[in-house]
Write a structure and sequence with these properties.
The complex is a heterodimer.
Chain A lengths: L16 H8 L4 E5 L5 E2 L14 E5 L3 E10 L10 E8 L4 E4 L16 E8 L5 E7 L11
Antiparallel strand pairs in A: 1-2, 1-3, 4-5, 4-7, 5-6, 7-8
Chain B lengths: L6 E8 L11 H16 L8 E3 L5 H9 L5 E3 L7 H15 L4 E9 L16 H5 L8 H4 L4 H8 L3 H15 L13 H6 L2 E4 L1 E2 L8 E10 H4 L7 E10 L14 H14 L8 E4 L6 H8 L8 H6 L16 H4 L7 H13 L11 E8 L4 E8 L4
Parallel strand pairs in B: 2-3, 2-4, 9-10
Antiparallel strand pairs in B: 1-7, 1-8, 4-7, 5-6, 8-11, 10-11
The chains are: A mainly beta, B alpha/beta.
The structure holds zinc ion.
Zinc ion (ZN) binds next to loops of chain A.
Chain lengths: 145, 382
């Protein structure tokens, strides 16, 4: 799918570049602490649980569950209301804000805890957003890690 | 630790007008409220030697505009509860001898936007990278993000969340300065315009112009002033995250829990001691989170507690008695107005006065759930 023009465009920083390189390559990249095994988001080159600088980037499954959302009814550049602003809880634990695609933007269709999978959606040549769509079937039911 | 009641609020006032004030800029709303608070105390501007107001470069602007030469300043800006933190910091500064008499000011042209503070996009911030691209547009689209998870976790109903607005309109109907005073029903709330499901217009705060100011000094001097002092018994503060998507728990605010428990511990009070409560209500779920995180009710019980009219006029825990951010006023940083109402209730001068208020708690939130401050005020010095 393609995005409507006008969305706020993220600008990567040295500490987040690996995440944006990942989405452009079709990978959802998270970080895990080598010392205490904490998996965390958003990106930073140290562990927010223990302070260790020994952390690794790894490819996440791209699966998760719908954790919470609102359905926005006001006009915002790049969006046609009503549209959902959602939070997905990834199978690996961290949560991230996203939009839900390939799904009616209604309370009936957007059921909390429904399984989701990542839908990489390019914004331009540099930036690809990690949006999410309902997972086919219910096989990701146990998305809560 | 500073002893409970060592410092008191001896002056408190709002701007002469609140609501729609198109003939006053933001800085003048600060000054108008400050001059009213000075009049409340009988002090002169030259008596003020400490100044607190919200945000970068603001103490300089307000000091110069008012003609004050402070020897202590605080520009803490953590959103709408910043004033609760100012009270806490000012009490410590007075106790330490850094200053004798502190003025805390707020002014915001939230509706008329005259001399307003711009909020530029920050595409390199973590919020700019990991929240802004998904279509949020200010607090109405972000603050309610945890609500559906909270509702599902505890079985909270839309009707219970509507009751927050219904009850607060009962309070504001008694208040001539409130922006919205007509009584509403649960049905009215649930039929009002959808803003950000699950919240409708009447569950979202007003957007108004206004200001407020407080004057604090040591309790030993407090009896010399014309108004009854409101003694500062306890205070607390904390922060969590500016990204609502990254709150550790979508059913509870860590900042609320830390600030609230610190204030209660410092004051040495129990929940049953509290006669009057203000919980910053930018949106309808905040009083529920506040009641639970401050420990007035158990987890998931606040919806029922409000539905049963415990916080309504005549209830056992009168809450948001000015009508709150939902019905009284909400300039953008409402915490100052919650404190003003707590002072009025302790003095016994509120439009919807609760009988015999000895202890009032004002609990604030800032920048979604990013920050919190709690102030416990007492009528009597312990
Ligand atoms: Zn670690």
């Amino acid at each position: 799918m393609t995005l409507q023009a006008g969305r706020a465009r993220p600008e990567p920083t040295p500490e987040t570049q690996h995440f944006w390189d990942g989405t452009r390559a079709g990978e959802l990249r998270l970080q895990r602490c080598d010392a205490c095994a904490k998996t965390y988001f958003p990106p930073r080159p140290f562990c927010p649980a223990c302070g260790s600088r020994k952390v690794s980037v790894f490819r996440a499954s791209g699966r998760g569950r719908l954790f919470s959302y609102i359905i926005h009814h006001r006009a915002v550049p790049g969006f046609t209301p009503p549209y959902a602003i959602a939070v997905v809880e990834l199978a690996e634990g961290p949560r991230m804000m996203t939009n839900i695609v390939d799904c009616p933007q209604t309370p009936e269709a957007l059921q909390l805890d429904m399984p989701l999978e990542v839908a990489f959606t390019p914004m331009d040549e540099q930036i690809t957003l990690a949006l999410f769509r309902p997972a086919p079937g219910n096989k990701a039911q146990g998305a809560k890690a | 630790m500073i002893a409970p009641g060592s410092v008191a609020i001896v002056g408190a006032a709002e701007s002469t007008r609140i609501g729609v004030v198109p003939d006053m800029s933001q800085i003048m709303l600060h000054a108008d409220a400050a001059l009213n608070a000075l009049a409340d105390t009988g002090l002169k501007l030259s008596d003020i030697d400490g100044l607190a107001c919200v945000g970068p470069m603001m103490p300089q602007q307000i000091a110069h505009y008012l003609g004050i030469t402070p020897r202590w300043v605080d520009g803490t800006g953590v959103g709408g509860c910043s004033f609760m933190l100012h009270v806490r910091h000012a009490a410590a500064a007075i106790h330490a001898g850094y200053c004798n008499t502190v003025l805390i000011t707020h002014g915001e042209s939230g509706r008329s936007r005259i001399n307003g503070t711009p909020r530029p996009a920050e595409p390199q911030s973590l919020g700019g990278q990991f929240e802004s691209p998904f279509g949020p547009a200010g607090p109405p689209s972000l603050f309610p993000i945890p609500v559906l998870r909270y509702m599902k976790t505890y079985g909270i109903t839309h009707e219970q969340l509507a009751m927050v607005a219904v009850v607060q309109r009962e309070w504001s109907s008694k208040n001539p300065r409130a922006a919205q005073r007509d009584l509403v029903s649960v049905e009215d709330v649930l039929n009002s315009r959808m803003i950000a499901y699950p919240f409708r217009l009447l569950q979202c705060c007003l957007v108004t112009d206004g200001g407020g100011a407080l004057i604090l000094t040591s309790a030993d001097r407090a009896k010399d002033f014309p108004q009854k002092p409101a003694y500062i018994l306890g205070t607390g503060e904390s922060v969590e995250t500016t990204m609502v998507s990254q709150m550790a728990d979508f059913t509870s605010s860590r900042a609320f829990r830390v600030a609230g428990s610190e204030a209660f511990r410092m004051a040495g009070i129990k929940h049953a001691d509290v006669d009057h409560l203000m919980i910053y209500d930018a949106f309808a779920h905040l009083p529920l989170f506040g009641l639970e995180d401050l420990g007035f009710v158990g987890r998931g019980e606040a919806g029922h507690f409000i539905e049963e009219r415990n916080t309504a006029p005549g209830g056992k825990l009168p809450m948001n008695t000015n009508g709150g951010g939902l019905s009284y006023t909400h300039t953008g940083m409402y915490g100052m107005f919650a404190l003003q109402e707590s002072v009025r209730q302790v003095r016994g001068t509120a439009p919807a006065q609760v009988p015999d208020v000895e202890i009032s708690v004002a609990h604030g939130v800032g920048g979604m759930f990013s920050s919190s401050g709690t102030v416990v005020l007492g009528r009597d010095r312990p």
